[in-house]
Amino acid sequence: MIESMRLVNAPCFERGGVGIGSLKQFNFFFGANGSGKTTIGQALAAPLRFPGTTLTWERSGEPLSIRTYNLEYVRDVFGTAADLPGVFLLGKASREVHDEIATLQVELKVSATQRESLATTLGDYVAGTGALGEISTLRTELTEAGWLKRDQVPEALSIMFAGYRGNKARFLQQVLDVASENDDAYEEFDLLREEAATVLDLSSTRLDALTHLNMDISTGADGFGLFAVPVVGSKDVALAPLINKLDNSDWVRQGRPFLPTASPRCPFCQQSVSHELTVQLSEYFDARYTDQLDELSRFGAKHDAMARRAREYIDKIKPLLLAQVDNDALELSLARLDKVLLQNERAIKNKLDQPSNIVKLEDLQAEMASVNALIDEANERTRSHNALVDNRAEAHQNLIRRCWRTFVRGVLVADITYYEARIGGLEAARESLQGKLHKKKDQEVADRDRLQKLQTQITSSQPIITKINGLLRSVGFLSFHLAESRAATDGYELVRADGTHASGTLSEGERTFITFLYFYHQLQGVQTDTSESPTLVAVIDDPISSLDSDILFVVSTLIRRLMGQIRKEERRVRQLILLTHNVHFQKEVTYIRSGEPSSGRHFFVVRKRAGQPSEVIPYLGKNPVRTVYKSLWDEVARAKSSPDESSVGLQNVMRRILENYFRVLGGIDDSVIISQFEGEQQIICRSLFSWINEGSHSIIEESEFSPSGMSIDAYLEVFEQIFTRSDNRGHYTMMMGVELEVPDGAIPIEVGQ
Fold it and tell me: What is the phi/psi pair of residue 490, to 5°?
């Protein structure tokens, strides 16, 4: 059991904390509305709700589970079945199931409307509406543009359209696939057409590579150096100075063969030639001279042979080169080579004719390298050609791919650019709408599944109806009983004493009463929740919201029955904490009948004070609630002795005394009494009796007027004079002279009938 509690950070009370104890088996808290009783009940149910609040349990036992009956319990347990007037639900689980069912049904309707709106926005692809329609139109425009521009592809490459000619959908997909795989690079159709001649011509064969043009005559060749120096006879002959002076060595060499024929005369001057001149001429043109001439002749012959072979090779490969390389570049290179060859041939002939001349031979390496570069270019193309021939299938596919790339990124460049600029936003909108639509459909499926599962959880209310009606009969309550709803499986209906079903909403008192019966029924049940302890603490906060005597009797009887079960430990409840504002209810519950023990009961008063936090006054085993009329006089006496500590609604207290004594019991006309006062006192007297005429029998609310200290004295004075001037001074003296039986004069006031 709970021994005590400390209430911290709770409304109505000191924030620093209020201690409440000691608690027994039965604990009764009495206080006016707004004094803080509900706060105490909430703290008992969930101490963590008010940080710092603690419960102290018996040292010998483990903490018990706490079940609380209050307004929050009523809200959680009692529910109205949707669209079923007069039908209500009991039980938090049942209400939650019905609330969730109702929510799901609304959400499914809303979801269906939203789904239709999304579907409309998404549109129809075929009909051309919405985002899908815009995409369809854009794709159709691109298809038609590409279909019309196919004739811009050379006939030799039209094979690229094989498989697409009769199917525009496949054609468009190919265009889009090529566009997505290639940015903007493409080749010229003319080059592709040349390649197609090899790839697509099944009769084409491999080509042989060309060898380089090789002319091995260079500056290092034998005889090359003689062209740069004069070739003359021996300088040791006496005739040599004359020949050198005349620089006619070549003339002498050319005329020398005529000397033997004209001998003994000179073939030129016809004079006799001496033997000595013949000898000198022979010695001048010695073996060295002859060898040099032979070397020059051999070089000339070699050069002629090389030039002839070069021209023959060029004539052989020229057609192949013309098919592979730039023709202008080839012609220019060959012309330069032939020019150098001709220059060297003339220079060699000149040297052989006049050995003493100095001539220059041009180096052939630059021209030969230029021709060989073109041969290399041709060989590279030959290798590509041979690769195409060797891999004709792969080359065919590669050519087709490149043709498509050129067609899409060349011929269709404007159309595909326009398409790509618009399709991104449309596709994003489509994907977003489709995603939302799919999500909405998935949610609807999940909601329908959940709705079906919830509907299977709805169980019959008949067992609970039987139990609660049994409770009502056991205490003789016949004003109404519960019946199973004919419209909802786990619903309830209220049947009046005459057998009619309630067609409207239940009154607040009936709702409170029915939920209390359900709470009591739960206390009687066996343990089903494993999170609860086997035994319980029952906290009941103001179970009486109506002053109907039948209901008050039933509730008080059931609570007294519960107290008997606690004493005997017959059920799960081991401790009761009851909070109420109703005097009659408190008296009914706490009345000790013959044979009942009075032990194990503690009483507390929750008292609200004007402008100050409420306080909890322990009375331990003494019940502070007495008769209403006597309690009213006690409050007036308290105000008389301590005006600053008077309770809220003192004028209402005095009004109730005057009403009971003068009008209900005495039948005295209030106008007679009012006429005996004058001035301000008459105003005060009239106001007290005006309250009697206009007031009600309801409980004092905390919003009622609380007078100042000065006005309290004035009202107390008029109140006393009313009894004095009406010849009832003895009654006033008797009631005010009774000694208050409360500690420190702090007794609660309850002004109910």
Answer: -105, 25
Angle, vertex CA 505, rays to CA 503 and CA 506, nearest 5: 105
Residue 750 CB burial class (10 angstroms; 0-12, 13-18, ≥19): buried
- The span from the CA of 76 to the CA of 86, in Å, is 18
Q: What is the pLDDT of residues 44-57, one digit of tens each?
A: 989 899 999 999 99
- Start-end of H helices in 642-678: 650-658, 670-674
- The residues pairing with 54 across neighbouring beta strands, listed in sequence order, are 6
The pLDDT assigned to 398 comes to 87
Mean pLDDT over the full length of the chain: 78
Q: Please, where are the H alpha helices in 543-582?
A: 549-568
Neighbours of 630 (CB within 10 A): 11
d(CA 431, CA 504): 51
Separation of alpha carbons 259 and 266, rounded Å: 6
Over the stretch 163-178, which tens digit does the pLDDT of each residue have?
898 899 999 999 999 9
Domain with CATH 3.40.50.300 in the chain: 2-90+461-620
The CA–CA distances, whole Å, from 590 to 520, 539, 599, 741 equal: 18, 16, 12, 19
CB 233 within 8 A of CB 249: yes
pLDDT at position 613 over 50: yes
Sign of the dihedral defined by the CA atoms of residues 552, 558, 562, 567, in that order:
positive
Query: Residues 6 or more apart from 610 whose CB is under 8 A from it?
Result: 646, 647, 648, 706
N- to C-terminal Cα separation, the chain: 35
Pick the more confident residue, 258 or 390. 390
- The H or E element spanning position 7 is strand 2-7
Please tell me what DSSP assigns to residue 621.
T
Q: Give helix 130-148 / helix 168-181 axis angle, nearest 10°.
A: 90
Contact 378, 321 (CB under 8 A): yes
- Cα atoms in the Cβ-side hemisphere of radius 13 Å centred on 279: 5
- Residue 269, both tokens: 């001057």
2-90+461-620: which CATH topology? Rossmann fold (3.40.50)
Taking the CA atoms of 361, 362, 363 and 368 in sequence, report the sign of the dihedral they define.
Answer: negative
Identity at 336, one-letter amino acid code: R
**Contact assessment for residue 58 and residue 429, using Cβ atoms and an 8 Å cutoff:** no
Side chain identity at 267, as an amino acid letter?
Answer: P
Q: Are 450 and 111 in contact (CB under 8 A)?
A: no
Task: Kindly give, in sequence order, each residue whose CB lies less than 8 Å from that of residue 44, ignoring residues fewer than 6 positions away.
Answer: 2, 5, 55, 66, 68, 537, 539, 577
Q: How do residues 365-422 score in pLDDT, each as one tens digit?
A: 888 899 899 999 989 988 888 877 777 767 888 888 999 999 999 999 999 899 988 8
**Structure-token match 């994907």, residue found:** 431
